[in-house]
Amino acid sequence: MDEISVTTAIVVGANSITAIVSAALFLLVLWQNPRHLTNQLFAFSTLALTGFCITNSLGRLVDTLQLDANTVFYTSNTFYGAFIFGLLVFTLRFAPIPRGRATQATIAIILIGLILGGLMWNGHMDDGYKPAPDSSGDYQTSFTALGFLMASVIFGTLIATAVILYWYRHYTPRARLLWIAPLLVVAGVLWIVLIWPSLRLPINTFTLAAATLILGRAVLLEQTFDPLAHYSAELTAKNRELEEANRLKRQFMANMSHELRTPLNSIIGYAELTLHGADKQLNDKQRDRLEKVIRNGRHLLGLINDILDLGNIEAGRLVLHPETVDTVALLDQVIGVIEPGISSRSLEIIRDYAAAPAIYVDRVRARQIFTNILDNAIKFTQQGHIRIKVSGERQVVNFEIEDTGIGIPEDKLPLVFEEFRQVDSTSTRQYGGTGLGMPITKRLIEMSRGTIDLESTENRGTTVHICLPRADAAQRLHHPPPDATAHIINVLIIDDEAEARTLLYDTLRTAHPDYHVYTADSGREGIEAAQRIQPDIITLDIMMPNMDGWQVLKRLRS
């Protein structure tokens, strides 16, 4: 009696676990997509497996509960058959089997299942269930000839399904492991027939649960994770398309900026040559007009240079040449350029950097950084002050540029460093600009191994915090005495635009009559000239046909 109780407990426990797993899969698959045919078929199979587990547990309690053995076991077998046939139909529908063949096989399986069920309930498959002679609590039956035939058909169908699924496993990833499921069902049947009489462990229940889990995993992967992977791949492809579109946009802007800058340089250059070379021939009105041409031309040139700088930074072509820079002289120079523009305002620039230590940066880009920041401060500050405070630490130099301007709302602070974005982007905004100055400034500071941060309160002002590398003692600025025997400066101009070459030639010869200036109208000619004259200075156009400026530069360096 104790042995029977232990076996019953094991069987009921195993069936209960499988029933819970099957019921959970039933609910999960239906919740995932209740209208999908494969989900409905799989839900039918898991529901049948749940029914089998419950009635199989009742089969161990027939005597205890005084149940009719045939009714319990025929019901259990019906659920078992429904599970197997539902499993086969689901597998045929889910696997990449041609639709026509799958439909034919499905019809055949349903017909066989209905025939088997009818024969079983009418007593043509076996001679009924009777208690086992060993009083173990088991019930047993004997198949009729027809029962053996139909059992062989089911067994053969399961093996054939496994073979078909194994054959098609390479056609789609989702069906790669499906062939294991029918083999597990076969293993469970063999266990009951061959091993159960000597080893009473409900392994068949676990094989059914394992087969169900394999199929459930396939369904969930297809309908949950595969779509996520598909959407992720689509998103990656879209991101690549956007990156490529952004790259093409930058390239277009760089090309257009270059095409605009070349004639604009000529306009500004010839206007300056006319203004400074014809002092006695120009009246005040003519001089004023030329100054306006130069001023607005320089403004437009600054915008074009910003676009080119941004493109070069993003392409990794902008190279910094750090050196020791006198911070006081640098800031004085920047303020000296912008200070005349605020003479008509009640605005004071407070210089709190008399003892500022030197910094180790690219001189030209450092000037651009502080010009951009101070231009912004002046633009948005009508009255009050702009304070520039500098303090040194062991490794870095800290800059604090404080203004009493209009300030920036807290939710708009992240926009300051975004390209082509402005705090006020409406068509009625009071302050102009392209939205490139601060993004470029941030990039240049980061390339200089520095940091930049903002603090701002709306209607009270903004403070910009900058940190740049400090120059050590070995990098102190050194001005060697002039060499009286220094050779004459040779300058080589390489540019495919004739007007640009002429303008640079005239400008250099006017400003430095002692310079020897040479010109070349192509990259190849420029390389040959450079090898011949060994120039001290080379001005090089980047965009030229056949061999661009970067290729020329690479050849010159080699």
Description of the molecule:
The protein has 558 residues and is α/β, with parallel strands linked by helices. The chain folds into three domains: 2-233, Rhopdopsin 7-helix transmembrane proteins (Up-down Bundle); 323-475, Heat Shock Protein 90 (2-Layer Sandwich), CATH 3.30.565; 482-558, Rossmann fold (3-Layer(aba) Sandwich), CATH 3.40.50.2300. Helices cover 58% and strands 12% of the residues. The chain has helices at residues 2-32, 37-59, 62-65, 69-94, 99-121, 145-167, 180-195, 203-277, 284-314, 327-338, 363-379, 437-447, 498-511, 523-533, 549-557, and strands at 130-131, 139-140, 322-325, 346-352, 359-362, 383-392, 396-403, 451-457, 461-469, 490-494, 516-520, 537-540. Strands 4-6-7-9-8 form a five-stranded mixed β-sheet, with helices on one face. Strands 11-10-12 form a three-stranded parallel β-sheet, sandwiched between helices. The protein has a two-stranded antiparallel sheet with strand order 1-2. Strand 1 and strand 2 (139-140) form a beta hairpin. Helix 9 packs across helix 12. The longest helix has 75 residues, at 203-277. It starts with a helix and ends with a helix.
